[in-house]
Predict the 3D structure of the following.
Amino acid sequence: MTGLGLSLASGLDALAARSLAWHWRRPARAASAQALASRELHLATRLSRLAEQVAQLSEAELFPEPRLLTLTNADSSARLCWSVPWPRWPALDNVHSPASAQLTRRLRSLAEQGCPQLAVRFGRPAQARGAVVVVHGWLGASAARLQWQRPAAALAALGLESWLFTLPGHAHPLRWPEFPYRRPEHNLRALVAGIHALRELLGALTQRHGVEPGLVATSLGAVFGAAVATTGTPLRWLLLDRPLDSLARPWQQRESERAAQLEAIYGGVNACSRRRVTDAPLVVLAGERDQLAPLAGAERLTAHLGAQLRLFPGGHLCPVGHAPLLRDELTRLTRERCC
């Protein structure tokens, strides 16, 4: 593609980044400068207090032991539903406003009904001898099945079935995703519940096929995928595609102090704050012009986890050069590490 095309790809990312920044930080209408300053001070105090309380959470509270699930032919033909408890942490209960507490009750109710986390099988070879799990990005729950039709067919030819893991808050294809939430305490709970459910799926597929599954995690989903690499969950290989290195990343360019507070809140489950445990091969694909999941974040993940970095010239939403690189890396990983 010409330089003009690459510039357009970069511009599209920049426009999307500014739109998201406005979405997450809409100013109050007709608010005075004094009111805005007071609100900012209140928010900074609350985040600081929350970070102190999160620091008291134990490893077992952030990474509870996954249950051993068994997949049968009946329940794996279409989709799986888990009843993943919404994490209950008494230390954080007193930071909720009435509106936040109401949202917590609603999300907890949904989690106990097994709604937020779904796994759908969309690639099924005649005789499966392994599996690959795909974790989509923000707004990608519906598009992922279309985007992965060709890769899934190629994986099926190698005897690998494909599973799509749906992120928390993305289960309904026609609704705006709830996750990420505006309140970081809800984001942390969603991260813990989602990582827990993903580890259960990976463990169940290991038991089903007798070999560890491969894992591909894209954009926002890479926050979950990278965290799995810091646990003892069985993995054949891990590919992080245009990864977001932290939920605090969108704040890095605009408010470094706010970003530091959010890093402290999410640090307990963020891969860049933990130690890599798995010895499975790790590969990171990153766009040189990506402004939604910037190259700096991919390089940070690569250095911290000891992964291999592969670059393509495009951006995030217009990933020029991405498709052939993804195909080549999937082929290499599956052939080198196939059962």
